[in-house]
Structure formats: C-alpha cells, structure tokens
Design goal:
It is a single chain. The protein has 283 residues and is of the alpha+beta class. The chain has 2 domains: 8-163, Beta Polymerase, domain 2, CATH 3.30.460.10; 169-280. The chain is built from 12 helices and 7 strands. The chain has helices at 8-19, 32-36, 59-69, 108-119, 138-146, 156-163, 169-177, 179-194, 198-219, 230-234, 244-252, 259-280; strands at residues 25-31, 45-51, 91-96, 99-107, 125-126, 135-136, 148-152. The strands form 2 sheets. The chain has a 5-stranded mixed sheet with strand order 3-4-2-1-7, sandwiched between helices. The chain has a two-stranded antiparallel ribbon with strand order 5-6. A hairpin with a 2-residue loop joins strand 3 and strand 4 (99-107). Helix 7 packs antiparallel against helix 9 (198-219), helix 9 runs parallel beside helix 12 and helix 11 packs antiparallel against helix 12. The chain is globular, with a radius of gyration of 21 Å.
Length: 283
C-alpha cells in the first residue's frame, strides 16, 4: 500500500528541488497562503518559478515533469513564458496527490527592475486577467517579501528580500498619495448614482476601496499582495478605521439599485475614506 501523502510543505520542498533542475529556472519559491500563514488544510500550493533570461526555459523538460507528477498524467499542460500576459507570465495548474499545485512563472529580470521602481516610490497598475483591480506591481514585492525560498541558484531572491527591508518610505508616501483616486472615483460616481447606474457605481466603489486598502497597508508598512482576502487582512492592521473591513463589506454587499440607495452607499464609503485620509495624514 502507498504510504501517507506528504505534508503540503514537504511536497513544496520536493517540487521546488525538482523544478530547480530545469534549464532556465533561476529560483523557486513557495508563495500564496502557505507562505503568508493564512493556509488551511485544503489550500493550493503556489510555486513561483523565476526565469533566468540568460538561458531559455526548457518547456519540454517541464512538460515531462508535469506528466510525471500530475494525477492526470499527460493531460497536464505546461504553458510557455508570456502566454498568460506580461505580468503573470505563464505556468501550469497541476493536481499532485489530490492537491492543487500551481506553477507561476516570473521573469526575474523584470521582477528586479520592478522592485527597484517600487522602492523608489513608483508602483504602477496594469491590466491582467484575473485581477479585477488590475495588476499592481507591488505584487512582485509582496511575493518576494513573503516567499519561502525553495531554490535560489545565485542568491537573487535572497538579495531582493534584503532590498525590501526595511519597508521603503517612498512607497509608503506614494500609496498614501494615491488616495486622491479613491476620492475622485466616489465623486465621479455620484452622477452615475443619480441615473441608477449600479454597474458603474459598483466598479467605482470597488476600485475606491482597493485604493484605501493599499494606503492602509502602506501606512502600516505591510506589502499588499492582491485583492483576494485583502479586506480581512486590512482588519489585522494596527492602524485602520474602526471596523474597517466590516463596514466596507456591508456597503459593497448592499449598494442598491435605486438612485437614492446608491447615493447613500457612496456617502458611507466617503465617510470611511475620510477616516482613512485622517489616519494617513492626507486630509
């Protein structure tokens, strides 16, 4: 009979070592909820696969490894670099021993340049499928900062980790300054609310709250990873408006359809924003 399944962390270590043998792979990290400490028994294993542009990635090698590891055998499909877009570069979705395992490519040279820009206070947001608020380049910094290193051929990830400590004051100032967008979105949505345009108001309200969350993360010198679960994480911050996450969830969960309902929802978000601005010294 087969032995017991390895623990998620033991499986990640084993997979990291295997991936590290692939030509073109510079580093492998454990990310996501297992790195951040938010994982439960059923959480996926997210592996960041950092690519070395000095040598091409051997996709055929990875495909053979995936077919060997995946419960579905040769049905497992490994993507080529760039197939998923310029920021989420590609990878594979596997099932290993009944557990979801994601390989996510990262262009190491791009990550290095982006982190330098982040530390200089120049985060940016780009379109990327799967990221409803857009892909913030701060994600690269958060991934590296939180990651457990499984393989690091030349110490590139270790060097980037040291670059991100202490938290860059320029990034903090930039994220706090970005609160202008949160207020502008709420004010611009007022006319849509008068027309009963729930669709426009909902999008504006969501993006506005993301700006608030990012500013609060900056204020607390915490790297923001992505939209998923960020309200709950914001409630764990020491500096935040009282019941911040719960109040935002209450508004977004019941925006309304009628003009009067939408206007009230925008007013409630504006009140929360004013508290965030005061905390951040932006008001």
């Amino acid at each position: 009979m087969p032995g017991p399944a390895p623990s998620p962390l033991a499986l990640a270590v084993r997979l990291g070592a295997r991936l590290g043998r692939c030509p073109g792979v510079a580093a492998v990290t454990l990310g996501g909820s297992w790195a951040s400490g938010a994982a439960d028994a059923g959480s996926d294993i997210d592996l960041g696969v950092y690519l070395d542009n000095r040598s091409p990635l051997d996709v055929a090698w990875l495909q053979r490894l995936a077919a060997e590891l995946d419960d579905r055998g040769e049905e497992a499909v490994v993507g080529r670099p760039g197939e998923w877009g310029p920021w989420v570069n590609g990878g594979a979705w596997l099932v290993v021993g009944g557990r979801r395992v994601d390989w996510i490519y990262r262009d190491l040279e791009l990550v290095e340049r982006t982190i330098e820009a982040i530390c200089a206070g120049h985060p940016a947001t780009h379109f990327q499928a799967g990221h409803p608020a857009g892909f913030s380049t701060e994600i690269y910094a958060a991934e590296v900062h939180l990651a457990e290193v499984l393989f690091d051929a030349d110490g590139a990830i270790a060097k980037l980790k040291s670059r991100l400590v202490p938290y860059p004051p320029q990034l903090q100032r930039s994220l706090v300054a970005g609160l202008w967008e949160a207020r502008w979105l709420l004010e611009a949505a007022a006319s849509a609310a008068r027309r009963g345009d729930t669709h426009f108001v909902a999008g504006s309200a969501f993006r506005s709250t993301v700006c608030m969350v990012q500013a609060l993360f900056g204020l607390n010198e915490r790297y923001w990873l992505h939209e998923k679960g960020s309200l709950a994480l914001a409630d764990s911050l020491s500096k935040k408006p009282e019941r911040f996450g719960g109040r935002v969830r209450a508004v977004l969960g019941d925006l309304g359809c009628e003009p009067s309902e939408l206007a009230i929802s925008l007013d409630r978000l504006a009140e929360i924003l004013a508290e965030v601005e005061v905390l951040c010294g932006a008001r």
